[in-house]
Design goal:
about 250 residues; mainly alpha; ADP-ribosylglycohydrolase fold; 14 helices
């Protein structure tokens, strides 16, 4: 299990127990880190954890500027989309605790809006997701990348879109992952994941974000049984299921 899943579970824990406060979320990350529950955590998130432990206020912890333009905020934002009382400031603060960067925020917001579009019955997998989320995003390089992909050949493949960039830079990662999620009905979940992995780049986070969006669209019943079996065989499965079950109880 990678930090993408672990930080998403930490976010679920916070949202399932109380109204969102940024400091509670970074404190939960610290608890995970000290309990050896974060595998391969990124530099920005790690710096935020260490800064907060050293007494720095959460709003000033972590990296800033170009060094904070990673996908670490976007990869764990999905749970917010399932709660009705979430504001853009909540998304901004949830990202800012580790990534103080406008592009990082735009990436997190894009993932949030993608999942929200499914839950609000605006995107059904056949209409254009990009047309829904682009107008809602701030003027950023990430928004420009989404526009570029949207204007590209409509029958393009994951490997073709990967040529625009698919590393951990949020402008490369999030638009690529969102595009991959739109191929879910063409490819199915397993093939979508395989093509993401084959394309290289930040494979675990790209697959995680695409899986969060595509999984919301198809629902648990459409996830291949082989993947469910692999999940249940994980050593931490009971812990994962407990967090998810507790979170579901708080969702409106």
């Amino acid at each position: 299990m990678t930090d993408d899943t672990q930080l998403t579970l930490a976010t679920c824990e916070i949202l399932s127990k109380e109204n969102f406060e940024p400091e509670n979320l970074i404190n939960k990350f610290i608890k995970y880190y000290r309990s050896n529950k974060l595998n391969g955590v990124g530099a920005s998130t790690l710096k935020a954890i260490l800064d907060k432990e050293a007494g720095i206020h959460w709003s000033q912890a972590g990296r800033t500027g170009e060094f904070a333009a990673g996908n670490g905020g976007a990869m764990r934002i999905a749970p917010f989309a399932f709660f009705s009382n979430i504001t853009r400031k909540n998304i901004f603060d949830a990202c800012r605790i580790t990534h103080r960067n406008d592009e990082a925020f735009a990436g997190a917001l894009a993932v949030y809006l993608s999942i929200k579009a499914i839950l609000n019955l605006e995107w059904n997998g056949f209409n254009n997701l990009f047309d829904i989320i682009i107008p809602e995003l701030p003027d950023t390089n990430l928004r420009d990348r989404l526009i570029k992909i949207n204007n590209y050949n409509s029958i393009s493949t994951i490997s073709e879109i990967a040529k625009f960039g698919n590393n951990g830079y949020v402008v490369n990662s999030v638009p690529f992952a969102i595009y991959c999620s739109t191929k879910i009905f063409d490819l199915g979940l397993e093939k979508m994941f395989q093509e993401i992995i084959n394309s290289g780049g930040d494979t675990d986070t790209n697959a995680s974000i695409a899986g969060q969006i595509a999984g919301t669209l198809i629902g648990l019943e459409k996830i291949p049984q082989e993947l469910i079996i692999k999940l249940k065989n994980l050593e931490d499965y009971k812990w994962i299921k407990q967090i998810i079950d507790e979170t579901k109880l708080r969702i409106d």
